[in-house]
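Sample 3 of the quickstart, ligand C2E:
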Amino acid sequence: EAKAAGRDRAVTYDAGLRERQLERTELVERLRAALTAEQFTVYYQPIVTLGTGGFDAVEALVRWFPAPGELIGPDRFIPAAEDSGLIVALGEWVLRQACRDAAGWHRQHGTAVTVNVSPRQLMEPDYAATVGRALRDSGLPPAALILEITEGMLVGAANQEDRTIAQLSALRRQGVRVAVDDFGTGYSSLAYLRDLPIDILKIDRSFLPSGEPGAADRQLSFVRTIVDLAHNLRLAAVAEGVETPAQVALLRELGCDKGQGYHFGRPRNAAETTEVLAAAQLTAALPVGA
Ligand code: C2E
Ligand code: MG
Ligand code: MG
Ligand code: MG
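Result:
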């Protein structure tokens, strides 16, 4: 009887797996069509210098609008795009769009732009050339572009790490900066910090103290340790997922360089971002006490 039940479960599992594979294939086909139909949009979220409150950069975050009024977030389609390889085309589209949008913001406000990069893109032999072309075509200076890589993605074939190092070095020689995204959530974090040529460390939001009194001590030592780690390695520290004024005060106290999160602003489309940046500059230009 147990054997029969086991067999049943195996059959159910296989059917579920097949269904998921079918869904995946369908999703990839829809994504491919969406790229041609220009259903993707890049949103931007501010990254703020904690010392001054100034908008230092914006992070480009892709959104999918499959139909009017319908929005799908990247967590629901980036994994499929990565598995299928479609991320190479989608990622290049995001990069070019982000550079174009940011060129004007950089001219007017000195704002930089950060773009998320998938492992598959970094493994393309001509990726550094792709980035160089996006910069030239948009007029955005290399110093105003930051590429974000997630450490989880770097786990893989033995020579993948060498290739990643070579690619990142080539990009940095062009003057582009590199950030490690979601630091602390992947594998071998410290080994990567030691070996990879990087400039910025983005602390995953799961490390931010919630602000609730009591359990805060241990959380606090953790963030402090990561900020100090970044500074000892001469990296800038950016806190992700900042949602409350208490967290801002705390991060300032710890000497964290920058913050990003709903407290400073949600991701918005390019037109809204243009307004947000102009308003921020106006506020900054006001004389104290005005
Ligand atoms: P990420 O690069 O770590 O981006 C930060 C995510 O946290 C964004 O989610 C952002 O909307 C969200 N977030 C920002 N502030 C807060 C906050 O205060 N609280 C909370 N709870 N969340 C906050 P989003 O836009 O859904 O993107 C999810 C992930 O998808 C990104 O994580 C990134 O890994 C990936 N992604 C987005 N765009 C691209 C892209 O163009 N290419 C690639 N390869 N991945 C992308
Ligand atoms: Mg990111
Ligand atoms: Mg992140
Ligand atoms: Mg993330």
